[in-house]
Hints:
There is one protein chain. By secondary structure, the chain is α+β, with helices and mostly antiparallel strands. It is built from three helices and three strands; from the N terminus they run H-E-H-E-E-H. Strands 1-3-2 form a three-stranded antiparallel β-sheet, covered by helices on one side. Strand 2 and strand 3 form a beta hairpin. The two termini are 31 Å apart. The model has no long low-confidence stretch (mean pLDDT 82).
Amino acid sequence: MRTASTLAEQRVVLESVSWETYLSLSDGADVQRGLMAYDEGMLEIMSPSLEHERCAELLGMLIAAACEWVGIEITSAGSTT
């Protein structure tokens, strides 16, 4: 069943974050966290919605099928940056 909580994307934006703090957060071992983006002191942490992940998975499957059809080798890496 779809509910607002399963579909909602969640974002947190922090200002005045140092590069060192960002590196510490991104290198943290065994930490379950969302996707992070850093730009000139602004840190955004996002938890993608279920709908976002479903669309991303479907798009990935379509690209994989098209590449297989034309004989192009690809490697999937998920949300790795």
